Amino acid sequence: MPPLDRISPLLERFRVRTRLFHSGPLCGVTTLAAEPGRGFLHVLREGEMTVTHVGSSGRLEHVEVEDPSLLLYPRPLEHAFHNAPVEDSDFACATLDFEGGSTHPLVRTLPPVIILPLDAVPSLRPALDLLFGEIDNVRCGRRVIADRLFEVVLIQLFRWMVDHTADLGLPPGLLPGLSDERLAPTIIAIHEEPGREWTLATMARHANMSRSAFAARFRDVVGQPPAEYVTDWRLTVAQERLRQGTSVAITAGELGYSSPSAFSRAFSQRLGRSPRAWVASAEAEEATV
Questions:
Q1: Which pLDDT score, from 0 to 100, does residue 237 have?
Q2: Which of 137, 108, 143, 166 is nearest to 22 (CA)?
Q3: CA-CA distance, 26 to 99, in Å (whole number)?
Q4: Rounded to an integer, what distance in angstroms lies between the CA atom of residue 15 and that of residue 99?
Q5: Distance between CA atoms of residues 162 and 164, nearest Å
Q6: What integer is the mean pLDDT of 3-11?
Q7: DSSP assignment of 108-158, as one string?
Q8: Which pairing describes strands 30-32 and 114-117: parallel, antiparallel, or unpaired?
Q9: Conformation bin of residue 4: beta by default, left when phi > 0, alpha when psi is -120 to 50
Q10: pTM of the entire predicted model
């Protein structure tokens, strides 16, 4: 079997845009506020610092970062740097703007914070060398190139995560599903063709498994039944299509629903409002940002 591209179908449909906003030392305490649809990626190649954020317990956590590390905040979460990197440190920060905001599939599956020593992800070194080479040299196109290189770093990080979900201790979800050799072909096919008629039999056939074995494994690894995952993925795609201005009728047809009314019922049952009401609400939220 040829190697599977597990993340391109996700990132081609739901992009993540990176933007460099800081490089070099920081003064005093620097607080980064939580903003809807925005995450952060920080890279400390040299130096040390303390970062604080509210943990899952609701209490403020202090993390001492003493080794070169990468800090990923995929969801809006206020955090602050203390004892910031000094003058001779290599430190850079980028914002992450996820298309679809909280509905982005990778945002939903990742923990609130991931802190990784750079030694754990050696595949990042070439991209980081290029990134800091651009940051350190003020030349034409520096910011644009740095933005693109931060995106390369992020994609390589996602690639590493798919291969190391056990090391990260992730709960059942999308990334463990993509890392599972038996389930990955089916999940990738669903991502590429959400409008296909996905039955338990067709999904199990992609995995070369019996229906019962496939259903049990899917629930254990992904955390939900296969049919529910298909519905969630279709409605995730639907939200993006509606946000782009695609009509309800066209969206329903693209995603395999028998009629716009059938699509609207499924949408309303899962999201608590009709597609048109959801679009109006999304537009109002964007206008206030």
A1: 92
A2: 143
A3: 29
A4: 6
A5: 6
A6: 80
A7: HHS-S-EEEEGGG-GGGHHHHHHHHHHHHS--TTHHHHHHHHHHHHHHHHH
A8: unpaired
A9: beta
A10: 0.84
